[in-house]
Here is the input.
Amino acid sequence: MKSIDKTVELSAQMTRSVFKINLTRLAVVLLAVLASFVAVPNAALAAPPQHRDQVPGFYRLKVGDLEVTALYDGTGVFDPHWLNGTTATMDGVVKGLHEDPHMLDVVDSGFLVNTGKQLILVDAGAGTWWGGAALGRLAGSLRSAGYTPEEVNIVLVTHFHSDHVGGLTTQDGKRVFPNADVYLAKAESDFWLSPEIAAKAPKDVQPFFQSAQAIAAPYIKAGKWHTFSGSEPIVDSMQLVSLPGHTPGHTGYEFSSKGQKILFWGDTIHAQRVQLQHPEITVGFDIDQTAAAATRNQLLPKLAGADVLIASPHSSVFPPMGRLRKEGGGYNWVQVVFTDRWDEK
Here is the structure.
């Protein structure tokens, strides 16, 4: 009996010893694991991948009862050699670029107006006709905003440069907006679609005429091409605004609703951060540079003293909508403030 009791006692002692050894080993392992977390807190967590896509390129707001959506077409850089001004002014531009290399970065955009009855596009972006891979995103931005090209009823063209109308037509001659009627000034259409004027144009300008004719052709064939020469009504609550100088029929469109106004001013401004401070600076794309500068000098003071929202297809910011305020000898652009409650005042 004593032998059995002694055996049991020895077995218990051995069990306790083994348990203590295992417990000690477990404690050592746990401490090592905890130490690894303390020493390298992120070692056990894989770094999340970078997201290389951006938010969809649209922003909408209300102007009275109108829903206005800015549609991103792409971002480029305005070449300083395209600017024309006095030597002193241009020296200032060069100095400004040294201080801020992004001073001439430009966001290109088009705009969509939903009146509740019609879906109206103001300028169609570049498509594949201008800007290479930097531009041509307007149709995708339109879809991201919840619309399709087939739903667009009217396209209002400010002027016929390819960065504003290239998005109308594909390179193989198909209408991107098959149900839309296109409107532009008669002087604009007559100029760019004239074989005689194209033949007399400098060689480096002739591609602009060739692309214009190719872009317009499918709409003309479908009976969807319309011109205006005065103030004839096209859309309810919209006025034509003549903005001479940039092209022969350069036209703005001002919409009004419930006492609120928005002006789509086309290429009144190209290099926003330069030309608002120096409206006398013109660009190489201005056909009549004197008239283009005169248009700015007449228009900007009126807008700075009025509560008119401006939609600018060439802006240094997105969304490219804001108001003007006088600042020293020039003007300040007061951009609309982003809000996710876009339909509230």
In short: The longest helix spans residues 2-39. DSSP finds nine helices and 16 strands in the chain. The CA atoms of residues 54 and 141 lie 12 Å apart.
